[in-house]
Amino acid sequence: MSHPHYSKPRRLLHWIFAAVVLWATISGYASALLQPPPSVKQVLAFINVSLTTLLVPLFALRLLYLVLHPAPAAPAHQSPRERLLVHAGHAALLITLGTALLSGVLMMSRPIDVFGLLIPQPLQNLTAILFFEELHHYSCVALALLVAGHIAAVIIHQLRGHGVLGRMLPKQP
């Protein structure tokens, strides 16, 4: 079943975010749970901080693009209830992603090293830093669950023959 594609910029932003969020989630939880040597943890943290900090301006661009360029029409098989669930799920993903990104920046207790470019530490107040660290932890857990739900929904729709994944893939000639 064929459905209208998302635009190239929307697809590009989606897959950039998908790759970075999946990398940061998997490497972050693996680092926390598997307790690799400190040198490995340090490298993973450096890469995660660098990549996710780069997502902050892209997140603003993504939100602007969402407002200025609405998504194509929903697939015909979706009922109004399903459309509402899709919108609520995407809104939850964006809000949680924004919270994780912002809290990740605000929890930094040192300058932010983005692949060698140092950004000054945003907050100096230890109480505030600890608050954002805790918020970051919970928003990352929620984001991981929402991403898992998003992936599961795509798989279920694919198995039902709805072909929604094709809307986010490059157009076939």
TrEMBL record:
Its cofactor is heme b. It comes from the Bacteria. InterPro entries: Cyt_b561_bac/Ni-Hgenase, Cytochrome_b561_oxidase, Di-haem_cyt_TM. The chain crosses the membrane at residues 12-31, 43-64, 84-108, 135-159. It is found in: Cell membrane. Residues 5-170 form the Cytochrome b561 bacterial/Ni-hydrogenase domain. GO terms for biological process: respiratory electron transport chain. This is Cytochrome B. GO terms for cellular component: plasma membrane. Keywords: Cell membrane, Electron transport, Heme, Iron, Membrane, Metal-binding, Transmembrane, Transmembrane helix, Transport. Belongs to the cytochrome b561 family. It is a multi-pass membrane protein. GO terms for molecular function: electron transfer activity; heme binding; metal ion binding.
